[in-house]
TrEMBL record:
<dbReference type="GO" id="GO:0019752">
    <property type="term" value="P:carboxylic acid metabolic process"/>
</dbReference>
<dbReference type="InterPro" id="IPR054691">
    <property type="entry name" value="LeuA/HCS_post-cat"/>
</dbReference>
<dbReference type="GO" id="GO:0046912">
    <property type="term" value="F:acyltransferase activity, acyl groups converted into alkyl on transfer"/>
</dbReference>
<dbReference type="InterPro" id="IPR013785">
    <property type="entry name" value="Aldolase_TIM"/>
</dbReference>
<dbReference type="Pfam" id="PF22617">
    <property type="entry name" value="HCS_D2"/>
</dbReference>
<dbReference type="Pfam" id="PF00682">
    <property type="entry name" value="HMGL-like"/>
</dbReference>
<comment type="similarity">
    <text>Belongs to the alpha-IPM synthase/homocitrate synthase family.</text>
</comment>
<feature type="domain" description="Pyruvate carboxyltransferase">
    <location>
        <begin position="2"/>
        <end position="264"/>
    </location>
</feature>
<dbReference type="InterPro" id="IPR000891">
    <property type="entry name" value="PYR_CT"/>
</dbReference>
<dbReference type="InterPro" id="IPR002034">
    <property type="entry name" value="AIPM/Hcit_synth_CS"/>
</dbReference>
<keyword id="KW-0808">Transferase</keyword>
<protein>
    <submittedName>
        <fullName>2-isopropylmalate synthase</fullName>
    </submittedName>
</protein>
């Protein structure tokens, strides 16, 4: 069964302007646990003292999910992670030729020594620790380097190898540039050496393909997929948690442990504290994801929602709704009047026509109309003028 690693608290906090306090981090972690993710990557304690405190707090909060910390490839950083009481340690070090040369000034052999030294050290400190090694920018690194580094890391004690599409470079349509190619190649090459780590994927969204690539990796039997709430992260972020879960269930992954009803509250919490609004047209949890607007649509869904919906909002504990505005027809007005408990007025065609006209005028000024909050007053006004005329 596929595992989900949520990195809202680490990758998500790498969104410019985003910072979650330790209390909010804990609340987010508790919601992620209720949703049923397997691993929560809570941050790199070397970045800031308060981040270290937050990871420690989350590690000791009785959360079912494994709690992870993120580390650069240094013993000092690893020690800071282990001090937080974690179950999972991610160590990142690129073996791309460009990075080795330009940034680290190391050859491959020296890089492998460093990776082995740090991973063996971490393994010695904590027997039951899950250790992940990520050759950063895996998919733009020479595959031979990746295989060597991954083999060395597993032999030194790593349980998981992550394929990082750090710059969102992969695409499912080019066989040698697809993440499924990397998953298959790494699995088969390591198996030849009798090494069987779990394979994780971390897909950035630079080309808008993060979700497609994650599903491509899933089809190649990846074991773990990285996500964040709202797809937050560096630049254009990574895979969105809600979108991945919905699609995994849709393509046949048996849902034995995810509770999608907690997603709405989780997304609202993250949106509030990241100060980033959820776009209304965002799939799954955007305000308009299950809202019908144009007259033709509203009329059809009043008979059967499936006519304009391929997902059932009930799986998220949500209901579909109707929006009112210039695109509305009589049917939408009638439904909305019923929704606010004034069903008897819906039988008066002149009144319905009047309300429709008024709604259109208001909407042309660019004001959205909230059925619950605004419609009652509009209905009262129109009903009164009906009585007078
Ligand atoms: C980063 C880059 C990273 C690392 C992923 C990982 C990436 O350190 O910010 O450690 O598994 O995209 O490669 O997020
Ligand atoms: Cu990343």
């Amino acid at each position: 069964m596929i595992k989900i690693l949520d990195s809202t608290l680490r990758e998500g906090e790498q969104t410019p302007g985003v910072y979650f306090s330790p209390e909010i981090k804990l609340a987010i972690a508790q919601f992620l646990d209720l949703v049923g993710v397997d691993i929560i990557e809570a941050g790199n304690p070397a970045v800031d003292r308060e981040i270290a405190n937050a990871i420690t707090k989350i590690s000791h909060a009785g959360i079912k999910a494994k709690i992870g910390a993120h580390s650069l490839c240094s013993i000092e950083n690893v020690n800071k992670c282990l001090d937080c009481g974690i179950d999972f340690l991610g160590i990142v070090f690129s073996v791309s030729e460009k990075r080795l040369q330009l940034d680290y000034n190391l050859n491959l052999a020296a890089a492998l020594d460093k990776i082995v030294e740090v991973i063996s050290y971490a393994r010695k400190q904590q027997d039951n620790l899950l250790i992940r090694y990520t050759p950063e920018d895996t998919v733009r690194s020479k595959i031979e380097n990746v295989i060597e580094a991954a083999s060395a890391a597993v032999q030194a004690g790593a349980n998981i190898i992550s394929i990082a599409d750090t710059a969102g470079y992969t695409t499912p349509f080019l066989p040698n540039r697809s993440i499924s190619y990397y998953v298959k190649t790494l699995k088969s090459e390591l198996a030849k050496r009798e090494l069987y780590p779990q394979i994780e994927v971390h897909c950035h969204n630079d080309r808008g393909l993060a979700l497609a690539n994650a599903l491509d990796a899933y089809s190649a039997n990846a074991d773990i997929i990285d996500v964040t709430v709202m797809g937050l992260g560096e630049r254009t972020g990574i895979v969105d948690l809600a979108q991945l879960l919905i699609n995994l269930i849709d393509i046949g992954e048996e849902n034995t442990k995810w509770d999608l009803k907690y997603l709405k509250d989780l997304y609202e919490l993250v949106s509030e504290h990241s100060h980033i609004a959820i776009p209304p047209h965002q799939p799954i949890l955007g305000k308009n994801a299950f809202t019908h607007y144009a007259g033709l649509h509203v009329k059809a869904v009043s008979k059967d929602e499936e006519l304009y919906q391929s997902l059932n909002p009930e799986i998220l504990g949500l209901k579909s709704s109707v929006a009112l505005g210039t695109q509305s027809g009589r049917s939408a007005i009638k439904q909305a009047i019923q929704q606010i408990g004034r069903a008897e007025l819906a039988e008066n065609p002149d009144l319905v026509a009047k309300i429709l006209q008024e709604i259109k005028e208001i909407a042309k000024r660019g004001t959205p109309i909230d059925v619950e909050k605004e419609l009652p007053a509009i209905v009262d006004r129109c009903a009164l003028s009906e009585l007078i005329t």
